[in-house]
Structure formats: C-alpha cells, structure tokens
C-alpha cells in the first residue's frame, strides 16, 4: 500500500496544487493530510475546499484546532519578539478570514488516524497519523529528540515494532527507525523551514518492508509571495517562502 502524506499546507494554494498534481502522476493508493491547513498565507478557505473536493481525509493540526475553536493562541512556538508579534498577526488574520463553515470543518477534524495497510482483519502493521505527537498537536518532534523520546511516544501511541508513526508540525522532514518502529516527519507542503523552498511531502510504501520517499516539488512560489504581500499578513512571510525558512534579509541589505 502506497500512501502520500501531506502536512503543513498552511493556506499555500499554489504549493498544494503542485503537490496534488505530482501525486496524481505516481502510483499512490491513498492520500492523507496531517493538518495545519491554514495560517501564514492568504488561501485558508480555498485550501480546505481543494482538499475536500479531492476527498483527502486528514487530521487537525494545532492551527486547525485553534482556528476551529476560536482559541486565543495558535499553539505555535516563536524564537524572538518579532516572530511572536508576526505569529499573533497571522493568527488574527486567519481567524478573521476563515469562513464560519470552514472553521466548523476544521473543528471536526480527528486528532489521529490509524491506517491498517493489510486490513484490520490481520495483525499487520499500523500506520499512526498525528500532527505533532500522539499526545498533543502543539508539541514539536524534531530530529534532535533522542531515541528515548521516540520510544516514549511509540508507547503512548500503542505502536510496536513493524508500525509507523507519521507526523509534521516542525516543517523539517526526517525519518528514523527506533526498535523497529518507523518515525517519519513528513516536512511541510506550504511553509518548509529546512532551507529548501520547494513543497515537501512523503510517499510511504508499506508492504513486506516499509520505505519512505521524501519528495520535493517546485511550485509558483512567487505567486504565493505576491499574494501575501497583497494582504495585511507580515511581508516577511513572502521571503520566508522564497528561502525555505531562512531568516529574513536584513533591512540594510539592498537585495
Ligand atoms: Fe505547521
């Protein structure tokens, strides 16, 4: 069974369109999203509509559950006061520009989805999909986390050797095998932070063995950047997309 796993689209419609086109060109049995459909870019309603039209199921990221419930904070982490201010701007903009029926939809997304590639009638592998971790969609599961953290999360998720846990939230893709459990961070479709501006997703092939392919897809990043600049969203978000999350170019730099 081959799954396409797409996470952290963050209202970047050109990136989502390019990824869905790329997936259509592959022998994939099913596509799931791992949440964070909205935030940071100007197409929250259109992004949700495209996923619903394509009948792609998925789970709630922290941005989805906080926008969907009109929470006071997006559950995002920031490293400095400027990031904090921009994070609040983005959250306020998204709440103000996401339609009520879309918020309702975001609020109904499940926290976790379990897949049984060989069918639930056999004791085959389970693929667990969550946004952040099996306990909270706000917790960052970075590559720097020790094996002991992975083992703890596998235990909390009820995962055993042969199973896989896939997640996103950090926007940086990685994959590790710990005691026979596959841990897969799928990266981000619409807001990568690993220095590569291209949209990222994963093709997970589960059979006699499990294989993980990290895919990067070029898209019209300038269209997304210009659309951000045409709104009240922080203009730094445009450069963030162009650079794959590199720090914004200093104001004194003439580039
Ligand atoms: Fe995210």
Description:
- The protein is an alpha/beta fold and 255 residues long.
- It has helices spanning 13-24, 44-53, 62-68, 81-97, 100-108, 147-157, 221-229, 236-243; strands at 2-6, 30-33, 113-115, 127-129, 164-167, 174-178, 181-185, 199-206, 210-217.
- The chain has a five-stranded mixed sheet with strand order 3-4-5-7-6, covered by helices on one side. A four-stranded mixed sheet has the order 2-1-8-9.
- α1 links the parallel β1 and β2 (30-33).
- The longest helix has 17 residues, at 81-97.
- It is globular, with a radius of gyration of 18 Å.
- It starts with a strand and ends in a 12-residue tail after the last helix.
- The model is unreliable at 248-255 (pLDDT under 50).
- Bound molecules: fe (ii) ion (FE2).
Strand order of the largest sheet: 3-4-5-7-6
What is the CA-CA span between the terminal residues? 47 Å
Tell me, rounded to a whole number, the average pLDDT. Answer: 94
Shape verdict: globular
Structural class assignment: alpha/beta
Assess the beta-strand content as a share of residues. 15-25%
What is the count of β-strands? Answer: 9
User: Count of helices?
Assistant: 8
Question: How would you sum up this structure in a few lines?
Answer:
With 255 residues, the protein is an alpha/beta fold. The chain has 8 helices and 9 strands.
Question: How is this fold's topology laid out?
Answer:
Layout: E1 2-6, H1 13-24, E2 30-33, H2 44-53, H3 62-68, H4 81-97, H5 100-108, E3 113-115, E4 127-129, H6 147-157, E5 164-167, E6 174-178, E7 181-185, E8 199-206, E9 210-217, H7 221-229, H8 236-243
Parallel strand pairs: 1-2, 4-5, 5-7
Antiparallel strand pairs: 1-8, 3-4, 6-7, 8-9
């Amino acid at each position: 069974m081959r799954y396409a796993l797409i996470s952290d689209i963050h209202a970047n419609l050109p990136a989502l369109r390019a990824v869905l086109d790329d997936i259509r060109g592959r022998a994939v049995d099913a596509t799931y999203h791992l949440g964070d459909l909205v935030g940071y870019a100007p197409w929250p309603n259109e992004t949700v509509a495209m996923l619903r039209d394509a009948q792609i199921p998925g789970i709630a990221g922290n941005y989805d559950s906080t926008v969907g419930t009109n929470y006071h904070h997006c559950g995002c982490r920031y490293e400095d006061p400027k990031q904090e201010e921009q994070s609040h701007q983005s959250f306020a903009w998204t709440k103000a520009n996401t339609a009520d029926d879309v918020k309702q939809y975001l609020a109904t997304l499940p926290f976790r989805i379990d897949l049984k590639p060989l069918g639930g009638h056999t004791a085959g592998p389970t693929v667990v999909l969550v946004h952040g971790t099996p306990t909270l969609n706000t917790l960052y599961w970075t590559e720097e986390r020790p094996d002991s953290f992975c083992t703890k999360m596998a235990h909390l998720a009820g995962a055993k050797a042969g199973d896989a846990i896939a997640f996103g939230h950090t926007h940086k893709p990685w994959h590790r095998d710990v005691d026979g459990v596959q841990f897969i961070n799928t990266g981000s479709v619409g807001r990568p932070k690993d220095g590569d501006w291209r949209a990222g997703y994963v093709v997970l092939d589960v059979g006699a063995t499990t294989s993980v392919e990290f895919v990067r897809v070029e898209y019209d990043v300038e269209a997304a950047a210009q659309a951000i600049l045409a709104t009240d969203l922080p203009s730094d978000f445009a450069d963030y997309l162009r650079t794959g999350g590199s720090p914004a170019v200093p104001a004194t730099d003439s580039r």
